[in-house]
Amino acid sequence: MAQFSEEKLQKVNEIIARYPQGKQKSALIPVLHLAQEQFDGWLSAETMDYVASLLQLTSIEVYEVATFYSMFNLKPVGKYIFEVCHTGPCMLNGSDNIVDYIKNKLGISVGETTPDGMFTLKTVECLGACGYAPMMQLGKFYREHLTPAKVDAIIDECRKAQGN
Amino acid sequence: MSEEKKLFKVKIDNITVEVEPGTTILNAARQIGGEVVPPAMCYYSKLQGSGGKCRTCLVKVSKGSDADPRPMPKLVASCRTTVMDGMEVANITSPEVLDARKGVVEFLLLNHPLDCPICDQAGECDLQNLSYEHGADATRYEFKRRTFDKIDIGDKIQLHMTRCILCYRCVFTADQLTNKREHGILGRGDVSEISTYIHKNLDNDFIGNVIDVCPVGALTDKTFRFKNRVWFLKPVDAHCKCDKCSGKVALWMRGNEVFRVTARKDKYGEVEEFICDTCRFDRKDVKDWVIEGPRNIDRHSVISQGHYVGVQQPKETFKAVMDGRDPKLLMDIHAVSEVNRPDVDLSKIEGPAHSNDFDKKQ
Amino acid sequence: MGRKLLLDKAHIEGIRYYKTYRENGGYAAAEKVFKTMKPDEVTEEVKKSGLRGRGGAGFPTGLKWSFLAKPEGVPRYLVCNADESEPGTFKDRYLMEFLPHLLIEGLLISSYALGANTTYIYIRGEYAWIPDILEEAIRDAKAAGWLGKNIQGSGFDLEIYVQRGAGAYICGEETALLESLEGKRGTPRIKPPFPAVKGLYQCPTVVNNVETLATVVPIINIGGEEYAKYGTGKSTGTKLISACGNINKPGVYEIEMNISVEEFIYSEEYCGGIPNGKRLKACIPGGSSVPIVPANLLLTTAKGEKRMMTYESLSDGGFQTGTMMGSGGFIVLDEDQCVVRHTLTLARFYHHESCGQCSPCREGTGWMEKVLKNIENGKGKMSDIDLLWDIQRRIEGNTICPLGDAAAWPVAAAIRHFRDEFEWHVNNPSEALTRNFGLAHYADPLPVPAPAAV
Lengths: 164, 362, 454
Hints:
heterotrimer; A: alpha+beta; Arc Repressor Mutant, subunit A; Glutaredoxin; four-stranded mixed sheet; 4 strands; elongated; C: alpha/beta; Rossmann fold; Ubiquitin-like (UB roll); de novo design (two linked rop proteins); 3 domains; five-stranded mixed sheet; 12% strand; globular; Nuop51_4Fe4S-bd_sf (chain C); 4Fe-4S (chain C); iron (chain C); NADH-UbQ_OxRdtase_suF (chain C)
């Protein structure tokens, strides 16, 4: 059974306190972010049911919200998710080449995860970094002005972080 | 302060009506009735918060009110726009509205499977009626239509997501009639779907009402599935003593057999009173009910076929329909058609008949 | 050098932190407000400044504030819209990352003016590191007595919270944002009621863009009348422009609304021209949803006047020959870019971001993407171009929220101005896969109609 750590539970309470009494549903999206962080980067039905119980919501209310927003993963994902933007301004600066390069390099298609469970490749719509294109989101941060060499360095960096 | 409520005067397609403040344009039009009533696929007067989504009821407000006569800049959803005193609205008198409505019908049908021949809703389907009245005769969509993974939501209600137009009525129904909603809208955009996410039986005393509010064949009665066509059945008003609901229903019968039980619907397809699942699914014996009499069905509905009331049958034949020839009232079909072969005795054929058996050379 | 009001101190090392911000004149506006101004006087200054909403619609901010209902005993809310997601726009991110206290100060003054004791910053989920920056700024401001109870002895209380979204462009629409903030699916509400009457938790609410709220600070500092002297006509003040695409120096620029589009693209102070000596083909000057215009119509209006970076000049000529200021997302396409392909990526974007609530947008956006994909991939028919036109025409204006319009306009403008490029794709399907249509006549000077004889 999924369960938050004490520290996370305290964070949940802190979040709930931001809203007026009885409006704890407002905490749903922030708490789903916490849950996704804690439980392997994705939201299982079990995890969502747990969040529902924490916030005194019905399960369907949580499913409805979790499936609406593109940042919530509803299936298992790799340890590192390459979310490459391919909307207009990034396209003008060669994002398609970057996507192709990552595909070849990792031997996966868009939406797939490498067999070792390390990398997932996704294409995403505009992330608000149009002036620093091409770019991708990796975890919490953006990686901008991508080139094949930069992609190589990022992949090495991830592998090293797992190696130690 | 005067107790008397001031009524608002509204003109819809040049017909004036006086309505209470707070009335929507759609409901004002319904007070006039007839052709000026905009079609509504998602609005449902008995469900709070419904409406505004399908955009079939768009109308043009050519004059905002007496106080502010400016027209509204865009077409508005008549089901969610309240009237103002002196407002002037154009529905069927506005080519712009009719064109937009045609567009909406095309959008609604874009991914619809058009599987009416195998759909239980056929004959009482709002989308069928809407397309008939406002649709084009061919689609311009050349791509694969959207499909969904099939899910089972229990032994009473059948979900066909491909037919759904996302009116949200069933969600409001579950919210407002049952104590716990188990299904909802999942996903976003054109892949949104009605679902329970993890498969669950919808099980609640009033959940069956989602079948009646569904404007299309997305939610149908599993206990009636493929049993009969609605136009072969005779709807009668009936009631019973029920401790959960009013017990006032419509029975859909053939002979003495009750094929299905639904709530009674008004001329806009809305139920008069919601009924409970026991009445709907479990009382299928005519003895359970006190029959009040036949229901009035719109003369134009396919359900009325064969039940014409007050229609005069012609006594004479019309020559004109047969190029001036005398019609033969009794005719030997084999004299004019070679398709059938009365000389082939089916009982003498071993096994099921095959097209070879009708081969002329034999 | 153009005059700056927002980014004038952006270059100062450490301006992100409270101490440096304060030492460089930060919170002076807030001080002035608490010492000398009543809430209504703040609103009055904002009205005088002529400030228009910087999120895209350009609605006068002071007027919006004055619509806020003020029933007794009902809380009011200010919500800062930081759900910046319009392709081509990344200015709010810059403000929040580098000048968080400018936003906090703006929120403080605006909340005071509106009588809101709780203010939420709704930030797009992908800007995952920025809430930390904002929360640190909120903590420091609170420690310095700028937030919390009885601020500066004024009796005014304020708490500011940061709320992260989770990936949905539609939450930039104010009522969808409020739904999302209430923990629901981000589907726009059907209006009326408007947020000013029934907004967050059914209470009166004002939703304003990050840049709009930050701009309140210089308005108070220099006064509304002085602010209105910046810029041109009804386009008062300065505006942040996020410049991207094929330019030498992409980035966020603060411009005074009195320079020409040509100066903005080619001067060293701003975009620095187009890389590799390429020529300008087209531009979307206000974020992806505003109409794309070819080079010739971008630099001069149909009347033959120089096009300026103002709300009025950019929209001169309407949608026939003009475009819009929008959110200031300035996307430049050089001669090697394919307008069909670019339009396809935008159609894909709007299809992906449609909430699915109303039928024209839900069904129409995906249809446009599919037809465009066929044209781009050499499978298009001539009739597809008219079909696209018809689809966008039937989406525009018929949806619940402006996303439908935003999806329709780029397609409409691309066909309106670049129809021959679409036709070339249809007529030369295999060639279109290997090369682009090029600049063609899109930069040719347009004949200017002779002034009518009087």
